Amino acid sequence: MNFLLSTSAEAIVGAVLVAIILVLTLWIIPFGAWFKAMAAGAKISLGRLVGMRLRKTKPTLIVEVYITAKKADVDVSVDIIEACSMARGSVNNFVNILICAHVTGKSLDPRDALTIDLMGISAETVSSHHAAGGDFNRVLSLLKKANAENAKLSVEEAMAKDLSVEHIVAVEAKSQDGF
């Protein structure tokens, strides 16, 4: 009888250990995010997703944003999306900035989009600036130049300067065409 009790107690302890290991495995390996990425055609390895989990980023959010970028035909790596997350940026805003640039035909390096996001500039601001004929690459250049010269220049001032430069270029082009 003692033998039966010890065997059933060992079985219970074994079952509890297996259950704990299974729960930890399912928590560490985000199978749902991996499956969602595979189904959407945005391939991300399980190892990369486990790494995200260990670095305390949100694999599910990063996968969703990566899928959005891929569906919008924006070339961005999972690494820079994760870098945005780790820098406490808004990964949704970051990818929306890239999509906005892509849709308007402007080329924007993902690192510059990350800079724009970390400056707190919304995708809507970038979109309206592009719609007005501006170019955020020039805005960033103006801001970098001002920073190098230790001059104070706000984002709004840089955007206004960019639009005035764009306006001057357009007027000069029209005057050369004889209009």
| Distance separating the two termini | 105 Å
Shape: elongated
By secondary-structure content and strand pairing, the structural class works out as: mainly alpha
Question: Major β-sheet, in short?
Answer: none
Number of strands: 0
Tally the helices: what do you get? 10
> What is the total domain count?
2
Strand content: under 5%
Q: Could you state the order of secondary-structure elements as H and E?
A: HHHHHHHHHH
Output the radius of gyration. Answer: 25 Å
Poorly predicted spans: 1-5
Mean pLDDT: 86
How helical, in percent, are the residues?
Answer: over 70%
What descriptors fit this protein?
mainly alpha; 75% helix; 179 residues
SSE diagram, text form:
Layout: H1 2-28, H2 31-40, H3 46-54, H4 59-71, H5 78-86, H6 91-103, H7 110-118, H8 123-131, H9 136-148, H10 155-176
Helix pairs in contact: 2-4, 4-5, 4-6, 6-7, 6-8, 9-10
Quick take:
With 179 residues, the protein is an all-alpha fold.
Give a structural overview:
The protein is mainly alpha-helical and 179 residues long. It is built from ten helices and no strands. Helix 2 (31-40) packs parallel to helix 4 (59-71) and helix 9 crosses helix 10. The N and C termini lie far apart (105 Å). The relative contact order is 0.06. Residues 1-5 have low confidence and may be disordered.
